[in-house]
Amino acid sequence: MGTAYLRYLNLLFSAFYAVLNIILFITLQALAVVSPFLLGVVMFGGAVTLWEEISSSKIPPAMGVFLLGGGLASLLTGKHMLIALVRAFVTPQESGVLADARVISLVDEVTKKVGGAPFRAVYLNPGLDISTFYTSRGRYLALSVLALKYLTVEELKAVIAHECAHHHHHAMLLNRVHYRAIICLYSYCNAMQNVVSALQRKSQSDNTVQIGQITLIIVLLYMFLYKGFLRMMAYIIRDADYEYYCDSVAIKLAGGNIFASALQKIFDLRLADHIIRQEILSEDSLANALVTDNQNEKGLASALEQNALDRLDQKYNSLRYNNPSIREENARVKSDTHPPVFLRLQKARYGIMRSDHSTPLLTDTEARDQWSMMRDRYV
User: Fold this and answer.
1) Does some domain include residue 196?
2) Distance between CA atoms of 62 and 208, rounded to whole angstroms?
3) pLDDT average per 10 residues of sequence, the chain (379 residues)
4) Residue 35 domain flag
5) Tell me, what's the pLDDT at 54?
6) Which of 245, 254, 329, 372 could join 1 in a cystine, given CB atoms 3.0 to 4.6 angstroms apart?
7) Which one, of 266, 312, 236, lies nearest residue 162 by Cα?
8) Sheet holding 121-125: strands in order across?
9) What share of the chain is helix, strand, coil (3-state, %, to 5)?
């Protein structure tokens, strides 16, 4: 995986996928604009009938309604989809960027050691997501505030090194192209919602507008087919085995035992969070409390926040020290994007061993404060 040909292979596939998406989106835009009007023509009897009626200068009112309705839907679709396409490529605003100097310096240190361009910024989230991603401005790193509480500094370096490795040999370029295609699709879907809303506001007393809504069915069919295409591409381009290469970069930097410890902690946290969510769904009392107790909303929210972190900590420790069978069973499961954690841990044991005398970057109190701020922002 570390050979130079991967760089050119990823560039080739990324360029092909980008060109294919451009062609498909231009086609989708054109079809979406003309289809409602054409469907209005077809629904009344076809182009031949339309031409005969126009030639005789006796266009029936019903035909006029179909043509005007389809034409109106076409104009609105063209307008909103063009706006959506422009917005899809507008550079997003940078909000929620982490400014903690300790984390920034740590990320910069690891990035220089691993190699590659630095991250444009680091985002902090209240969940358990640790990932790297692209926007039009460059590449970013997302870190979990809980990871800063549970992982030692050396373990955190190993995780950051793994994420840095995702950018070697343009490995993320194909994912970036796919991500932009998904953004465009959802932008188009929002555009269609705006078209439908605009038509519905005028449809109560106007038959022409009601016909316009019917002619949008063909556009929705295009959306459905393109969504199916993106799902197929997502299945093709995902490469779980590439994670092994990223693991090897982290092992080389931090040591096999330290990376394995970090990987195990993150897995245990996610498993604990999953189990807690399942338990909450079955707890009617908690659900009722959330719905019915409106007397002290801030106090309730604060208590639930405190309980959430305490409960996660208890479940996490219970899994690590009292339920090895549950951990091992779930660790053998392969996800859509990652190999089984069990196999990744086995490979990590063959790496060099290093001592870890570091402690987590954030104290329990700091992590709780950060978690509350992040949770308010995301909620």
Assistant:
1) yes
2) 9
3) 61 82 79 71 57 56 64 79 74 63 92 88 86 74 91 96 85 74 81 81 64 73 84 74 87 95 95 87 56 44 66 92 88 81 92 92 86 69
4) yes
5) 53
6) 245
7) 266
8) 121-125, 138-144, 131-135
9) 75, 5, 20
Residue 317 vs residues 263, 269, 271, 310, 321: alpha-carbon distances, Å: 15, 9, 11, 11, 6
Q: What's residue 257's pLDDT?
A: 96
Distance CA 122, CA 141 (A): 5
Write the CA distances from 42 to 10, 35, 45, 73, integer angstroms.
45, 10, 5, 15
User: Is the residue at 139 inside a domain?
Assistant: no
Q: Which residues share a beta bridge with 97? A: 123
| β 121-125/138-144 pair status | parallel
Q: Dihedral of CA 283/289/290/296: which sign? A: negative
Phi, psi dihedral angles at 132 (to 5 degrees): -120, 145
Closest of 265, 249, 254, 266 to residue 158, by C-alpha: 254
Q: Measured at the alpha carbon of residue 132, what is the angle toward residues 126 and 138, in degrees to the nearest 5?
A: 115
Number of domains in the chain: 1
In this prediction, residue 111 carries a pLDDT of 94
**Nearest Cα to 266, choosing from 368, 367, 152?**
152
Q: What is the pLDDT of residues 171-203, one digit of tens each?
A: 677 777 777 788 788 888 888 888 888 777 766
Q: DSSP strand E in 59-186: where?
A: 121-125, 131-135, 138-144
Alpha-carbon torsion angle 277, 282, 286, 288, nearest 10 = 130
Where does residue 339 rank: exposed (0-12), middle (13-18), buried (19+ CB within 10 A)?
Answer: middle
Amino acid identity of 352? I
Nearest to residue 348, comparing CAs of 190, 170, 162? 162
For residue 66, CA distances in Å to 31, 73, 346 come to 18, 11, 66
Domain span holding position 14: 5-92+175-237
Q: Angle CA(206)–CA(209)–CA(215) in degrees, nearest 5?
A: 150
